[in-house]
Amino acid sequence: MLRTRFTEEFGIEHPIVQGGMMWVGRAELAGAVSEAGALGIITALTQPTPADLVAEVRRAREITDKPIGVNLTILPSINPPPYAEYRDAIIESGVKIVETAGSNPQEHLPHFKDAGIKVIHKCTSVRHALKAQDIGVDAVSIDGFECAGHPGEDDVPGLVLIPAAADEIEIPLIASGGIADARGLVAALALGADGVNMGTRFMATQESPVARAVKDRLVEASELDTKLIFRTLNNTARVAKNAISEEVVQIESKGCEFSDIQHLVAGARGRKVFEDGDLDAGIWTAGMVQGIIRDVPTAGELVSRMVGEAEEIIGSRLAGMIGGGGAR
Ligand SMILES: Cc1cc2nc3c(=O)[nH]c(=O)nc-3n(C[C@H](O)[C@H](O)[C@H](O)COP(=O)(O)O)c2cc1C
After folding, report:
1. Which end of the chain is more exposed for a tag (fewer CB within 10 A), N or C?
2. C-alpha distances in angstroms, 222 versus 54, 93, 217, 292, 293?
3. Which Gene3D superfamilies has this protein been placed in (predicted)?
4. Of ligand 1's atoms, which has the minimum distance to the CA of residue 178?
5. What is the mean pLDDT of each run of 10 residues along the chain (328 residues)?
């Protein structure tokens, strides 16, 4: 058993979190991850209404009675979803852990605190992690430049970002981005993190509710098969390389307004990729870590393999290096 401040303070068996994932973070996956002793997270905005979110948590409760969380991604938008209503639905659902991301969660914190909910805020820089600690979140998750989704605009990879954050942050720290196996878990712990957060790796599991073609693509793809879109709009997103993301990058390279690419990046098209397995139907999120994903296990197999191999790496491979054993 790997014990960290995160496992102790959040009551989770293993220091592994399945990060919020639009269209992917549904009851089947989050429930299976939590049942395996890691922390599964349901993505609030995947549900069409706050009432659907309450029902989704109830569905996950049929799979597990272990701790489970909900992700609330708060992005600035022209027509924002009713964030306060989703927040109230999270509270009503009875979950005790929330992952916030996207922007400052301050206005929601008192509500979560009053309901006894612990908040993990996910961000992409040390300064935002410090700010989150100051406003009273219970843990921070920090995404390096390798990550799937929004890496921010600083371009600092995890190998530097995680220890830089660990030097400053006093609350539990979760390393995120580029982690898929026990090697990544042990490295993150060595860098000063108290646990890891994974997105892409959990998308390639049996319970992940995306088409088999998407999972197969994650296994086949290399670390070179992602694209950074929206760079020129200061809203960078790392997504799978395909005909659409290449076209978006091409249009952006000539200088463009959002309206020039809007038809390509519509969320409904990305959703089609996951539902129909048509890999070029739209933009879909994936990280560089796909280059080291080689199979599609169940979430339970993945978690127990990671924890078992991490113990082996720490207790045997690394321990064997002390005293000149020369172990590999
Ligand atoms: C398909 C997909 C959808 C995602 N959607 C969200 C989201 O809605 N909100 C969020 O905070 N993070 C989202 N993420 C980011 C993950 O929670 C996590 O931070 C990221 O995947 C970590 O990098 P990794 O993929 O290298 O493990 C998404 C990731 C993936 C792969």
Report:
1. C
2. 38, 39, 10, 7, 9
3. Aldolase class I
4. 26
5. 97 98 98 98 98 98 98 90 98 98 97 98 98 98 98 98 98 98 98 98 98 98 98 97 98 96 95 98 98 98 98 96 70
Indicate the top mutation candidate among 16, 17, 21 to test ligand 1's pocket, ranked by most ligand atoms within 8 A of CB: 21
Structural Rg of the chain based on CA atoms: 19
Q: Which residues line ligand 1 (CB under 6 A)?
A: 19-22, 24, 43, 71, 73, 101, 122, 143, 146-149, 176-179, 197-201, 203, 285-287, 289
Q: What angle do CA 257, 260, 266 make, to 5 degrees?
A: 110
Report CA-CA distances (Å) from 158 to 76, 109, 174, 200, 202. Answer: 25, 27, 11, 16, 19
Contact 178, 262 (CB under 8 A): no
CA distances from residue 142 to 46, 139, 181, 236, 289 in whole angstroms, order as listed: 22, 10, 18, 16, 16
Ligand 1: residue whose CA is nearest its atom 17: 19
